[in-house]
Amino acid sequence: MLATDHTLLGLAVAAGAGLLIGIERERSHADKQERSTAGVRTFTLTSLAGALSLLVGEEITFVAFGLAVAALVTVGYRHTRDQSPGMTTEIAQVSTFLLGGLAMRQPQLTAGLAVLIVIVLAARTRLHHWIHNTLTNIEIRDGLLLAAAALIILPLTPDATIDPWDVVNPRQLWALAVTIMAINGLGYIALRTLGEKVGLMIAGFFAGFVSSTATTATMGARAKEQPELRRGAVAGAAVSSVASVIQIAILIGLVSRPLLLRMALPLLAAGLMVAAYGALFAFRSAQDAGHPKSMSGRPFNPVTVLVFVLVIGTALIVSALLTRWLGGGGLLLASAISGLADAHASAVSAASLAANESVTLDLASLAVLTGFSVNTISKCVVAFSVGGRNFGFEFTPGILLSVAAAWLTLFAQRLLL
C-alpha cells in the first residue's frame, strides 16, 4: 500500500511539474507571437514519460526514452529555429523529462525544482535586463572570483596549522577571507538594489560591512561638502559600526563558538547602543533635503582581501609570540596594536588562541574588546580629521558610548556568573 501511495504521489508530482512548466512556456511564446512545438500538453506528457519509463522498466529504459525525447526535441528545434533561435524551450523540455523520472524517487525535491525552473523561465526579461544593463564587467569578474575562492581554492587549502606555534591554519584563514568577500558582496548588492532612494543611515550600514572606518571617512567628507546632510552623515557613520560589530561576531563564531557565547551580550550591547544613536540622528535629519549618491563601485577588492588575510595571519603569530613572552598582557598589547588598523584581526587572533586553548575565554574576551576599543578611537580621529569639528563632536559620543556599553556588560556578566 505504501508503495502504491508513493507511486501515485510521484505520478501526480510529475504531471504537475510538466503542467506548470508547460503553462509558462506556452504563455511565453504566445506573448512573443512565436511558433513553438511544445506547449502545455507536450510538457505534461514529457514529464509523465520520464516517470513511466522508470515505473515500467529500469534505468536503461529511462535512458532509452531520454534519448528519444532528445531526438524529438532536436527535430522540433530545426523546424522553429528560424523564428525562435533560442533553445530555452528545448532545454526546458529535456529538464521536464528528467524531473518526471526524479518525481518517482524524490517527489518533494522534484516539486521544488519545478517551481525554481518556472521562476527562472518567467524572469527572462528581468534577468536579461539585469545582466546587460545593470551588471558591470567588474561586478561579474568579482562574482567569479568569489565563486572560485569558495568552490575551488577553499576545498584545496590545507586544513592544518603550518607554523611552529600552532595558530595559523590556511583553511581557516581562507574561510574568513571568503566570508569577508561574501559579506561585502551582499552589502554591495543591497546598495545597488536600494540605490539613491535610501537614507544615509541605511547606506552607511551596508557600507560598514566593507569598512566602517572608511565609511566614517566617506560620511565625514560628505558632511563637510554638504553641511545640510551632516546629521544624516553622522547617522550613517554611526551605524556602520553596527555592521562592524556583526562582522566581528560572525568571524568569532567561525573560529570559536565558546568565545562567541561569552561575547554575545557585550557585542549586542555595543551594537544596540550605536544603532540607537544612529537612529536618533537619522530621525533628526528626516527633514533635511537631499539623498546620498550611489555608493557603487565593486563588490570587493581582492587585494584588500589578501591584505586582510595577511594582517590576520601576522596578528595571530604576533599574538602567540607576545602571549608566550609576556603572558596575558602580551595578547592585550597585540590586540591594541592590530586594533589600530582593523578590529576584526584582533578578534580573530584572540578567538584562534582561545580555540587552541592557548588563552582562557576571559582573556580572549578582554583582547577582543581591547582591539575594538582602540579601533573605535581611530575612527574618532578619522571623524575629526576628515569631517571637521562639528561632525567629529556629533559622531564621537555615540561610538564611545557603544564601547562603554560593551565593557560594562562584560564586567557585569563576569560578576553575575
Structure description:
- This protein has 417 residues and is mainly alpha-helical.
- It has 16 helices and no strands.
- Helix 11 packs antiparallel against helix 12 and helix 14 crosses helix 16.
- The longest helix is centred in the C-terminal third of the chain and has 56 residues.
- The chain starts with a helix and ends with a helix.
Descriptive keywords:
elongated, mainly alpha, 417 residues
**Which geometry do the CA atoms define?**
elongated
What is the helical fraction, as a range of percent? Answer: over 70%
**Could you tell me the strand content as a percent range?**
under 5%
SSE order, one letter for each helix or strand: HHHHHHHHHHHHHHHH
**What is the terminal-to-terminal distance?**
58 Å
Average of the residue pLDDT scores: 80
Query: What is the total tally of β strands?
Result: 0
Please identify the oligomeric state. Answer: single chain
CA gyration radius, whole angstroms: 28 Å
In the predicted model, the low-confidence regions spanning at least 5 consecutive residues are 289-296
The major sheet is characterized as:
none
Briefly summarize what is shown:
Helix content is 82%, strand content 0%. It is built from 16 helices and no strands.
SSE order and pairing:
Layout: H1 2-31, H2 40-56, H3 59-80, H4 88-103, H5 107-122, H6 124-134, H7 137-156, H8 170-194, H9 200-208, H10 212-225, H11 230-255, H12 257-284, H13 302-326, H14 328-339, H15 343-355, H16 361-416
Helix pairs in contact: 1-2, 1-4, 1-5, 2-3, 2-4, 3-4, 4-5, 7-8, 8-9, 8-11, 8-13, 9-10, 9-11, 10-11, 10-16, 11-12, 11-15, 11-16, 12-16, 13-14, 13-15, 14-15, 14-16, 15-16
